[in-house]
Design a protein that fits this description.
single chain, 202 residues, mainly alpha, Arc Repressor Mutant, subunit A, 2 domains, elongated
Length: 202
């Protein structure tokens, strides 16, 4: 009996993840989640007291903290390795943990950043971008050879670049692709991030 209950709970969570991904939290209904896993709406409430509780089970704070920490580590690793490292030259050097995490939690990431209005994670995309800027800022130069910006403009530029990167990877995560295609495109975007459009022509 306990095993059956755990199976039903997992099915509800899987259905909820799909519905939140497709519709977003504000539009998602418990009835839609129940229909997807073939049970009554009342039965969903037997396991989860509210849509809010179900949402926070599917996307727990521990997962959000884990994703944030992986991002901070990736930014620090990239900046500390230096421009002459193999990380800059070889798309196969994309950290496996980062790629695997994006593949495994792609729906949760999209929901978190774009479809979480009305939850504790509303506005998280901007918070994530601010985290990226704050993490990158200590490694930022005060002057550049090809252009001139003051400190305020430099930070704004960094914010624009980080926003662009988040949107690039969100676009990839939102698309229905095979795992192999998604990983190949992730590596291509890694090349683009490091070397720009010209890097894609090599």
């Amino acid at each position: 009996m306990q095993a059956k209950k755990e199976q039903v709970r997992r099915e509800i969570e899987a259905a909820a993840l799909h519905v939140f991904f497709e519709q977003g939290y504000p539009q998602a209904r418990i009835g839609d989640i129940a229909a997807r896993c073939g049970i009554s709406t009342g039965n969903v409430y037997t396991y989860f007291g509210s849509k809010k509780q179900l949402f926070e089970t599917v996307i727990p704070p521990s997962l959000v903290e884990h994703l944030n920490e992986l991002l901070v580590q990736a930014i620090r690793r990239y900046n500390e390795r230096g421009a002459d490292s193999r990380y800059m030259e070889n798309p196969e050097s994309v950290p496996e943990e980062s790629a695997a995490t994006l593949m495994e939690y792609r729906k949760q990431i999209v929901i978190l950043l774009e479809k979480s209005e009305g939850t504790i994670y509303a506005g998280h995309k901007e918070k994530l971008i601010d985290l990226m800027v704050d993490t990158k800022w200590p490694y930022t130069q005060s002057s550049y050879e090809r252009y001139a910006v003051n400190e305020e403009e430099n930070r704004l530029l960094l914010h624009i670049v980080c926003t662009s990167l988040v949107d690039l990877f969100l676009d990839l995560l939102k698309r229905e692709l095979s795992d192999a295609s998604r990983l190949a495109l992730y590596k291509a975007l890694h090349v683009y991030r490091l070397h720009g459009v010209n890097g894609l022509n090599d």
